[in-house]
Design goal:
The complex is a heterotrimer of chains A (755), B (295) and C (161). By secondary structure, chain B is an alpha+beta fold. Chain B has 11 helices and 14 strands. In chain B, the strands form 4 sheets. Chain B has a 5-stranded antiparallel sheet with strand order 4-5-10-6-7. The radius of gyration of chain B is 19 Å and the shape is globular. In chain C, helix 2 packs across helix 5. Chain C starts with a strand and ends in a 6-residue tail after the last helix. Chains in contact: A-B, A-C, B-C.
Chain lengths: 755, 295, 161
């Protein structure tokens, strides 16, 4: 059923979230809050070197330390073959994942795990780590993407031969693959162009910087049954990866999802869980592990840093005739940067006849990248949207008008294949034009920037169940960890279908043994796909309720309608009966066929793409290079906001992360390839006083493929900020900043260079 | 297995005895905002922690001989709430207020900030500019030391093993005197200073500077007291020429390193920028012109 | 390793515990006393997720030794509500959707209570600087600040539309 044009009573309102009270009182149980009797503390030994061969590891002294109950190294884990899989938020090679969790022959970055201990106290575990003797043969290392691509670069993997080029290379390389996308004839297009602009850009790796470090609690029983409590974006992902890395059956592992303290893509793979299980197996005790903040920065995935060049050609009237882009993305120590989406998203906002994009996936001695909110898109869009601003300047056309002129519409064929359908980009640009921010005159010294962004959004496999309890209250269960309020949005959709208040429905996240398979919380898929499953489950319950009312009244089921939480005879011909509400039918359930329950598992298709546009005003201190964000407005097509507050929250949070990415966040390495700023003191995420109020404007162009019209929301808002701020800085100062972060020293240096 | 002992003596004598008698590394704990981070990271492995906060007088502010005496372990938040200190030493109070977060303000102390001996400590340039005197107690008794003689290098001080700071004496303020402190950081809060600058001045009735102390942080292994910059101010009003000379003097005195928080080139330039801005605030304040807080 | 006996008043109740010198107040609250509402996000005083009120002052419990707690009065997130009645700050965080993952929320709520205890009528700028030591990665602070300002108004007894 489709509710897009229905008058809605619950969807679109702002009830208090079901997990709210626990979270404001400290009751909510996150992974590190769980404990077990006789529990041990697990800790990991990490490489101090950026690149080294492990000549030997001697754990005997650590094992002999009183209070130590288990020590593991890669020798304790199966040496699994290369195998591509897609369970997380991107392609994953299980062999690489295994080696990332526990290095076998080489350590590939500072912080790479190579042994672990389980001990009765944290202090003993620390002492045991210090007693493990590792003999390293330190190898030359390489950090930056272009250096890693050089012919004489130190090679990380002897068996890595660049994929996507012919003939197949015979010499190993740090370039894992080359991808290309072509539409039309870019070279011919540039010949037609009357104005051409070009630019070269770099971005630095940035971390998701969730405030909760990774943590888990694992128990291995003598019968081979495994229990895991952990914080992740997908407990089915944790189950799948742990099973693969340990070589056990999925049915032997039960993963309980703890509350998750932020993920943003960074918790779509495992680091600790297989290690904790192996330590539990060795020690016979439950093992708890939690990363320190330094571990999180050094050893869990940031997103890629990149080098990019972009060229755009246009007619004098602003019509773009050709676009070209070369992208080199860092993958970290193992292949698998988000180069694919990077190549697709940069130009996806525009209707372009001729496009040529080449992307390189490059390994270097950094932690393996993980998904981070719209993986790959913010990087490529920083380049493209900065250059669009230069094009507008060169043409003497307003930057909004230039974008409107070239905007992708329904029917626009993208350079990577699909044709855009049911998209709201034009509506977003109209909203920019109509917004007071866009029209407000700038103050002396201020600059204003505009930038846009695109994300596919995804669907995928989800499961949800709806249980009507004996008193007519409702429990909805899904397999989607709730990061940002999805229990609220899912419960609201169920309540809407059942015709009851949102407070009647209690939504929970069920463990891997209690609900059907559900893909990770990522790609902005939960309200879309899991919401679709929950809606369908609620509809099945309604059908069942109608059937039972029909049975009670002894009329055909077609003669029963469900509205406002009760069964009514459908019109006077159906007969005159008092309505049967949910509570009454629930009470009668035993006599009408038993418990009222439905579960739906599906593979949702048709996630509507999301588009956003951000407007930003800045002031720049010309002497210090400090950039102040004076005003920020983020406009986005959200399809239909189920719970508008949490939709706004996604947009505001994504924008703030983008502000951090733009201005201050970066990984800083020393000459030895060690990270110099693995803490919140010097890895500078925005603090409350760094940002203004962020106005989120919700444009609602319904997605016809979702029962309520919802689109994914969480990814798009991190895409435009970097270029919006760069464009605002240019407006304020005339300086074009092409290297992120646009930190004070860089801005001051740009002033000095400009004279 | 190494073990860490803790003691919270209630007198100076007991504290000195504990420090003197420790066979291994003993550390004085006041606010702990640096010490605990160093303990946690394993950079510091002391055998004894001597918590001085229970020693009478080590927390609190009193007036003495026309000046203020600030207990060494007085939390920043207490100093900030003290009307007399805020009026007489707005720059020093602001500097303390810039150390870390509100949470850190509830603990951090002048003595801790000084004895941690980081060149980037926020309150230290302001203390230097103020001409504060540290009252040091130890096995050989009590001595009064200009604060700039306490730090000797990054993480190192001139204090003997059995010595610690009991309190700071701030001199009486002549008429038309004030101070200011600014530091530059990439964000608006929570960062370590890339450069810090504290200036204290006394002016005559015409606005001509008769006394000045200028101090720079994070541009050398220790906080610097820059006499050449003070000399630029003394005998002058704060006109464009004086500002330019002050900028040059601050830059000339800066001998920074390049690290994750800033480069030599950037730090040197910012030292000049801050010196000008801080002088402007200090001169305004000395002349009774209201000037807002640093943030 | 010798442990020290410590007695303190935690959330209005006298509490006794044994702790090792190097254990922080946060370690003690979480691992010894069993109050896990205070979170460890950094263990270096940079994120504020472990904020508690110690003798009337807002501090990071990761920057206080457990042994220093002797004789003190401590309020943690678990002590903010009165029984089943939420504190207005908690209620406003819920109404304004000022949390997403909720991990930083205990620290933010404790810090906000400390702010409003000291300054019942903060400006937005004052609230932002006071809370600068409480990192939140989900919300961009917008709804957090709105909740803080609204809670302040409610606590002042002003009617809010």
């Amino acid at each position: 059923m489709n509710y897009v044009d229905s008058s809605l009573k619950v969807v679109g309102t702002r009830p208090i979230r079901p997990d709210g009270a626990d979270k404001v009182t400290g009751r909510a149980v996150f992974a590190a809050d769980t404990r077990a009797p006789g529990m041990l503390w697990g800790k990991i030994l990490r490489s101090p070197h950026a690149h080294a061969r492990i000549v030997s590891i001697d754990t005997s002294k650590a094992e002999a330390l009183p209070g130590v109950h288990g020590v593991v190294t890669a020798a304790d884990f199966p040496d699994i073959p290369s195998e591509e899989a897609f369970v997380g938020e991107g392609p994953m090679n299980f062999r690489d994942l295994a080696l990332n969790c526990m290095a076998r022959t080489k350590v590939l970055y500072e912080g790479h795990a190579l042994a672990a201990v389980a001990a009765s106290t944290q202090a003993i575990a620390d002492q045991a780590l210090a007693l493990i003797e590792v003999n390293y043969e330190v190898l030359p290392h390489v950090i930056e993407v272009e250096a890693a691509m050089a012919d004489d670069a130190p090679i990380l993997h002897d068996d890595m031969f660049t994929a996507g080029v012919t003939p197949k290379p015979t010499k190993p390389s740090n370039i894992a693959k080359v991808v290309t996308f072509k539409k039309g004839d870019a070279e011919a297009g540039f010949k037609e162009a009357e104005v051409i602009v070009e630019g070269t850009y770099t971005t630095q790796p940035v971390h998701q910087a969730y405030i909760e470090p990774h943590a888990c609690l694992a128990t291995y029983s003598p019968d081979g049954q495994i229990q895991i409590h952990s914080s992740s974006q997908g407990h089915f992902m944790v189950r799948a990866y742990t099973a693969k890395l340990l070589g056990v059956n999925l049915s032997n592992i039960r993963v309980n999802p703890a509350e998750i303290g932020g993920g943003f893509g960074g918790k779509t793979l495992v680091y600790l869980e297989p290690v904790a299980v192996m330590l539990s197996k060795k020690s016979g005790r439950t093992v708890k592990m939690q990363m320190t903040r330094e571990d999180v920065f050094r050893a869990s995935g940031p997103t890629s840093g990149a080098w990019m060049s972009v060229k755009i050609g246009a007619k004098k009237d602003g019509t773009i005739v050709a676009a070209k882009q070369v992208l080199k993305y860092q993958a970290g120590a193992f292949a698998g940067s988000p180069i694919g989406p990077g190549c697709m998203c940069g130009f996806a906002m525009y209707d372009l006849p001729n496009v040529d994009v080449v992307g390189y996936d490059v390994v270097s001695n950094r932690p393996k990248v993980a998904a981070y909110r719209a993986p790959g898109a913010p990087i490529t869009s920083f380049a493209v949207e900065s250059l669009m601003d230069d094009l507008a300047t060169k043409l003497g056309i307003d930057p909004l008008t230039l974008r409107v002129k070239n905007a992708a519409k329904n029917g626009t064929k993208t350079h990577y294949g699909p044709t855009h359908q049911n998209i709201g980009f034009t509506a977003v640009l109209d909203a920019v034009k109509a917004h007071p921010h866009w029209k407000t005159p700038l103050k002396e010294g201020q600059g204003r920037g505009l930038a846009t962004g695109f994300w596919f959004n995804i669907g995928g496999e989800s499961s949800a169940s709806v249980h009507v309890n004996e008193d007519g209250s409702v429990t909805a269960a899904t397999g989607s960890p709730d990061i940002g309020g999805s229990r609220a949005s899912i419960g609201m959709m169920v309540a809407e279908v059942l015709g009851v208040p949102a407070t009647t429905v209690r939504t929970i996240v069920a463990d891997t043994a209690s609900i059907g398979f559900t893909h990770v919380t990522g790609g902005s898929r939960v309200t879309f796909a899991t919401g679709m499953a929950a809606t369908q489950a609620a509809e099945k319950v309604v059908e069942d309720l109608k059937r039972r009312a029909a049975q009670t009244w002894d009329i055909p089921v077609e003669a029963v309608e469900w509205k406002d939480g009760a069964a009514y005879p459908a019109g006077s011909n159906a007969g005159a009966f008092e309505p049967l509400d949910l509570a009454t039918l629930a009470l009668k359930a035993a006599r009408t066929g038993g418990p009222l329950i439905a579960e739906v598992s599906l593979n949702a298709q048709g996630a509507g793409p999301g588009f956003g546009a951000h407007i930003c005003d800045v002031t720049v201190d010309k002497e210090t290079g400090h950039v102040t964000i004076d005003r920020y407005t983020a406009i986005q097509d959200v399809g239909k906001a189920i719970h508008p507050s949490y939709v706004e929250g996604q947009i505001q949070g994504g924008a703030a992360q983008g502000i951090g990415w733009a201005l201050n966040e970066e990984y800083i390495y020393n000459a030895k390839g060690q990270m110099e700023n693995p803490g919140f003191l010097d890895y500078r995420v925005p603090v409350a006083s760094d940002v203004p109020m962020i106005e989120a404007v919700l444009v609602e162009v319904p997605n016809p493929r979702h029962p309520f019209g919802a689109r994914g929301v969480g990814e798009v808002p991190i895409i435009p900020p970097m270029a919006a701020i760069a464009n605002a800085i240019r407006g304020a100062t005339g300086l074009r900043m092409v290297d992120l972060p646009m930190s004070p020293p860089k801005v001051r240096a740009a002033f000095d260079a400009a004279g | 297995m190494s073990s860490l002992s803790y003691a919270a003596p209630t007198s100076v004598d007991d504290a000195v005895k504990l420090l003197a008698g420790s066979s291994g590394l003993a550390k004085v704990l006041s606010g702990g905002t640096d010490l605990l981070v160093q303990l946690r990271s394993g950079r510091l492995k002391p055998d004894l922690i001597v918590d001085t906060k229970k020693i009478p007088g080590i927390i609190g502010i009193r007036e003495e001989n026309g000046g203020f005496v600030v207990g060494a372990a007085t939390p920043g938040a207490v100093v900030e709430a003290h009307a007399g200190m805020t009026a007489a030493w707005p720059g020093l109070v602001e500097a303390l207020d810039l150390i870390g977060s509100t949470q850190v303000q509830g603990r951090c102390s002048l003595a801790g900030n000084l004895c941690n001996a980081s060149p980037a400590a926020d309150s230290v340039p302001a203390l230097y500019a103020a001409g504060a005197i540290a009252v040091v107690v130890g096995g050989k008794g009590r001595r009064e030391v200009p604060v700039e003689q306490i730090p000797t290098g990054p993480g190192r001080t001139s204090l003997a093993k059995d010595e610690f700071i009991l309190e700071f004496k701030l001199p009486p303020r002549p008429a038309r005197s004030s101070d200011a402190y600014l530091r530059f950081i990439p964000r608006t809060e929570m960062d370590i200073a890339v450069v810090g600058c504290g200036i204290s001045v006394t002016l005559d009735e015409k606005g001509v500077c008769t006394a000045a102390r200028v101090s720079l942080g994070a541009v050398a292994p220790t906080v610097l007291l820059v006499q050449a910059a003070a000399d630029v101010l003394i005998g002058h009003t704060l006109d464009a020429d004086t500002l330019a000379k002050l900028d040059a003097a601050a830059q000339a005195a800066s001998k920074p390193i390049s690290d994750k928080r800033g480069t030599v080139e950037y730090r040197t330039k910012i030292a000049g920028v801050l010196a000008r801005r801080v002088a402007a605030i200090a001169f305004d304040r000395a002349q009774g012109i209201k000037n807002g807080k640093a943030h | 390793m010798a442990k020290t006996y410590v007695s303190a008043t935690i959330n209005g109740e006298s509490s006794e515990f044994l702790c090792e010198t190097q254990q922080t107040l946060l370690d003690v609250l979480r691992d010894v006393v069993g109050l896990t509402g205070s979170k460890e996000g950094c263990a270096s005083g940079d994120c504020g997720a472990c904020s508690v009120i110690l003798d009337g002052r807002l501090v990071c419990s990761c920057l206080v030794l457990g042994v220093e707690a002797e004789g003190t009065t401590i309020t943690t997130i678990e002590g903010i509500a009165q029984g089943d009645k939420l504190h207005p700050v908690q209620q406003k965080f819920l109404e304004h959707a000022a949390l997403q993952c909720g991990f930083c929320t205990p620290g933010l709520i404790v810090a906000t209570k400390a702010l409003l205890d000291e300054n019942p009528n903060p400006t937005e700028t004052e609230a932002r600087y006071w809370l600068a030591g409480n990192l939140c990665r989900c919300t961009g602070y917008d709804k957090v600040i709105r909740a803080v300002m609204d809670a302040a108004a409610e606590l002042r007894g002003e009617t809010v539309g």
